[in-house]
Design goal:
single chain; mainly beta; four-stranded antiparallel beta sheet; 0% helix; 48% strand
């Protein structure tokens, strides 16, 4: 059974940092492009960041560019999202997703991106 499990969320003050992790079981993560998405209450899900299978190519959404970075450790079957200089508008549930056929460049524009999804981890940024 394939599972993606996010962790690392929590409550942080504006300007603070968090590091989210997405651990995979039941699949070999090195064969999948990975993405992070977020959904705030009353809003649609939005793309945050994506990374190719080797980790050499990344895409970061404009609202978080320069503050968030995505990385992966295929040996540990884990993907990370480092979030710095957090703002209250970053408050959302953050989910990771894995896609075997589509690369990270389409994660931002494809409504069907992601073969597998995690349940998400809550990030709350207080002002």
């Amino acid at each position: 059974q394939v599972q993606l499990v996010e962790s690392g969320g929590g409550l942080v003050q504006a300007g603070g940092s968090l590091r989210l992790s997405c651990a995979a079981s039941g699949l070999t993560l090195s064969g999948y492009a990975m993405g992070w998405f977020r959904q705030a209450p009353g809003k649609e899900r939005e793309f945050v960041a994506a990374i190719n299978t080797s980790g050499g190519v990344t895409y970061i959404a404009n609202p978080v560019k320069g503050r968030f970075t995505i990385g992966r450790d295929n040996a540990r079957n884990t993907v990370y999202l480092q979030m710095n200089s957090l703002k209250p508008e970053d408050t959302a549930v953050y989910c990771c997703a894995a896609d075997r056929l589509r690369g990270p460049s389409t994660a931002q524009t494809s409504a069907t991106w992601g073969d597998y999804w995690g349940q998400g981890t809550q990030v709350t940024v207080s002002s």
